[in-house]
Write a structure and sequence with these properties.
Length: 416
């Protein structure tokens, strides 16, 4: 007697458990081991009560706006999956008459629709950032950047949506197998081209000129044995008073980027701590590490997307290769991406902790790291110790109190 297949939602649940297991195992394998154990720190020991009250008031509302925006995006997709409004359902049906162009237009339209759904929350968050002096952009300037970002996302979605529908039509329920290679390949390509094609759409990048900051970069890079690629100054001050630095790109596009206001606001010890931290990312190949984690998780994650989309649309996976199925695929992808992203954030936090440890090794200046964390937190109006649940789900970096605790542990002679 033939065995009956497991009910659809049982398969979804089993795959979801498998995704979590693979993500956790992959994170455990890839996590850095040479991380200093921070000592316990109270935020009130490094920040005045007025500073903490300002940060808590600002960030608590911003967190609510972030969650509200995500829920609004989800609500838009749920309505479209349910066939509402009617004109949208009719448009999806007409798109099926020309699968390639219709799929591209539908995918791009979905990006615009979810952005519009979240727009009130994004505007409110921007206006609050202006009120506290964090954003330096007018609403019009901010809106122009938002439109450019939406256009870029829509173009990428059009290509990805068209590819997904083609794979579904060609491979049916097994589309996620070749789809995993396409997805990871797209991620690698985007990271490679973003610094030279996408980032310049929003900011001006100049090679860091000769001076103390560049000399420190070269000295620390030589000490770490790192091929730093190139170091750029970005005109972030046209958008924010906040401070930041980052590593981006792959291969020939690899670079360290420093905010112009960071270079102006920090003393030399603080700047060296920032530079050493970013050099650690280059030294330890943290961008490829993240891509490897993504490659390990993607196959089962896309299988889960396929199963969820099938459940949402009441269609079998082999029947999803039409533009009308894209809202269900987008909703499934959004849910899975959110969950997988939360799991990946733990690896990200550990990688950032290792970068702090390496910065201490290169500079041996824990007080500079403490001053840096305090200055960045104040300038960014950050919460030194955010709520645990929010930190668990959204936190890509350790909290300020954890980072100060690591510097104190180093100062006491503790080592990884």
């Amino acid at each position: 007697m033939a065995r009956r297949p497991a009910p659809k939602w049982v398969r979804v649940g089993a795959t979801a458990v498998a995704v979590v297991a693979v993500a956790e195992v992959a994170a455990w394998i890839l996590r850095p081991r040479d991380v200093i154990e921070p000592v316990q720190v109270e935020e009130g020991s490094y920040f005045a009560s007025a500073e903490l009250e300002r940060a808590h008031d600002y960030r608590s509302t911003q967190r609510l706006l972030t969650v509200g925006g995500l829920l609004a995006e989800g609500a838009v997709l749920v309505l479209l999956v349910a066939g509402r409004p009617r004109w949208a359902r009719r448009a999806l049906e007409r798109a099926g008459e020309r699968p390639v162009l219709g799929g591209a237009a539908t995918a791009a339209g979905l990006v615009v629709a979810v952005e519009l759904g979240a727009l009130p929350f994004a505007i409110a968050a921007h206006e609050r950032a202006v009120e506290v002096g964090l954003s330096t952009q007018s609403l019009g300037e901010w809106g122009a950047d938002a439109v450019k970002a939406t256009v870029v996302s829509a173009v990428i979605a059009a290509a990805a949506g068209t590819a997904a529908l083609a794979l579904l039509r060609r491979f049916g329920g097994r589309w996620w197998i070749p789809g995993s290679a396409v997805f990871v390949g797209l991620a690698v390509t985007m990271i490679w081209v973003a610094p030279v094609l996408l980032a310049p759409l929003f900011n001006k990048f100049d090679r860091l000129e000769q001076g103390q900051a560049r000399s420190d970069v070269l000295e620390l890079a030589d000490k770490a044995g790192v091929d730093v690629g190139e170091v750029y100054r970005v005109d972030a001050s046209r958008q924010t008073t906040g401070l930041n630095a980052y590593v981006s790109g792959l291969g020939s596009t690899k670079r360290v980027v420093l905010y112009d206001n960071l270079l102006q606001a920090l003393d030399r010890g603080q700047r060296r701590s920032v530079i050493a931290h970013e050099l650690s990312h280059a030294e330890n190949q943290d961008v490829p590490r993240g891509l490897l984690w993504l490659a390990l998780v993607t196959p089962l994650a896309l299988l889960l997307v396929s199963q969820l989309a099938s459940a949402f649309s009441a269609r079998e996976p082999r029947e999803l290769g039409r533009p009308a199925s894209l809202p269900a695929l987008a909703l499934a992808l959004a849910l899975v991406s959110f969950g997988v992203g939360a799991l990946g954030n733990r690896l990200s936090r550990e990688v950032e902790e290792r970068a702090d440890t390496r910065a201490l090794e290169l500079t041996n200046d824990p007080q500079a790291l403490i001053r840096l964390q305090r200055e960045i937190t104040l300038r960014n109006i950050g919460d030194p110790d955010p709520p645990a649940l929010y930190r668990l789900v959204f936190g890509t970096h350790p909290s300020t109190v954890v980072r100060i605790g690591a510097a104190l542990a180093w100062e006491r002679g503790e080592r990884p």
